[in-house]
Write a structure and sequence with these properties.
Strand content: under 5%
Helix content: 55-70%
Number of strands: 0
Shape: extended
Low-confidence stretches: none
Number of helices: 8
Distance between the termini: 33 Å
Radius of gyration: 21 Å
Largest sheet: none
């Protein structure tokens, strides 16, 4: 089984969480990564700020609020911003503007394309139908072979 790759945006969260004072163990638990990855990423990114002063307003959303937002988006990727705003207010007691939510999405490296592509790909019923049809064709998983044509190059064709 190939090693699991971790996305760049998840790696970028590690120094931010560490700067906010979270322990290595808590970062591992929150992001679902191993300690060795956290230590390697922290070696690459220095913990000191390069700017002499902090500019802008502090984020009113806590790490737990952001985790709540990502969990909701994982389960309901097509949720509207006002619905997400209502969920945050009713479950976490935090009222934020739509602009704050958009800024949080930008910080989490989420955009409309990412969320909508994720939503279009997620259909449990179609997935189950496909898996059943493959199971009828090839009852043994060793019988399956996959080809990748993404790197097709016209110059190398014979």
């Amino acid at each position: 089984m190939p090693p699991r790759t971790v996305s760049d945006d998840l790696k970028a969260r590690i120094p931010v969480l560490r700067r906010h004072g979270y322990s290595i163990k808590y970062i591992c638990h929150l992001l679902g990564v191993k300690k060795t990855l956290v230590y390697k990423v922290l070696q690459l990114f220095p913990l000191q700020h390069t700017h002499s002063k902090n500019t802008g307003r502090r984020c009113i959303l806590t790490i737990d609020d952001i985790a709540f937002i990502t969990a909701i988006l994982r389960h309901h990727p097509t949720m509207y911003l006002d619905e997400l705003q209502h969920e945050l207010h009713s479950h976490r007691g935090v009222f934020v503007s739509v602009q704050t939510l958009l800024h949080t999405f930008r910080r989490l490296h989420l955009n409309r394309k990412h969320i909508s592509a994720y939503a279009l790909e997620r259909n449990k019923e179609k997935c189950a139908i496909f898996m059943n049809s493959i199971a009828e064709i090839a009852p043994d998983p060793e019988m399956l072979m996959f080809g990748d044509e993404a790197a097709k190059d016209e110059r190398t064709l014979i």
